[in-house]
Amino acid sequence: MITLIYICILASILFVVFSFRKEDTIRLSEKMKQEISVISQGGQPLKKPLLLLQPAFPFNRWILDKIGRQNLTNRLQVAEANIFPEDYLGIKEVLILGLLFGILFLAKHTEPLWLGMAILLGYILPDFYLRTRIQARKRLIIKALPEAIDLLTLCVQGGLDFMLSLNWVVERSKPNPLMREFALVLHEMKVGRTRQEALRAMAKRLQLSEISSFVTTLIHAERMGTSISEVLNALADEARRQRFQRGERLALQAPIKMLFPLVVFILPVVGIVVGGPVILQFIQGGLPKF
Predict the structure, then answer these.
(1) How many domains does the chain have?
(2) Cβ neighbourhood burial of 200 (10 Å; 0-12, 13-18, 19+)
(3) 195-206 and 177-190 helices cross at what angle (nearest 10)?
């Protein structure tokens, strides 16, 4: 029974990972020659429905209309999951049905506890994987932000305006989540959005304080007529300072995180090595003589 549960869990994890697999919708190394072909009129990457999921679960659209679609759509966009919200619900339903089928038809004895655990696991596993992808992507964006601002500052100081500088940085940088977000800002402007709207959409999509500060400062500088070069210099210093502070916080958290493995794994081994001979001596013939 336990072996079957492990097999079902492993198959569920592989199914979720395969379902969320995608190719980058923006090819930065090709100088964005085919950007319009991968962007819809609303400025978002085009999605492809997963095979047979929407026909198999036709009520998912109605369910999303009732519980709210926008929050799930934003989470999928931040995670760069190139699937529809209906497909996301379909993944959950396939996992639940698959785990229930495995337990009911392959196990000799079924208990209500295992059935409840199968339903719970099938429901929370896609959420856990999606949350993990979002957190990993946000960490990469925060890590790449200071260098990107430095490059923007150099381009602006070299005589380019902000949007040409952003285009230059996107085309010549290595692909990463921040560059894809900047590329999406450029795409949205090409399909009709203003610069302020495109930047605000990026800040709203990512929900990161560093990006929100970056966008707000740029918009205020544009309204007040402040030099973009000076603003970008200040933003780069602030981004590096915040990254240094995050490193300090992580360093302070390290001893606390090491406490659990120290108590559970290291101290018992040390106790066995030090006290083992004493215990054996006591069992064999009394206390040892010193």
Answers:
(1) 2
(2) middle
(3) 140
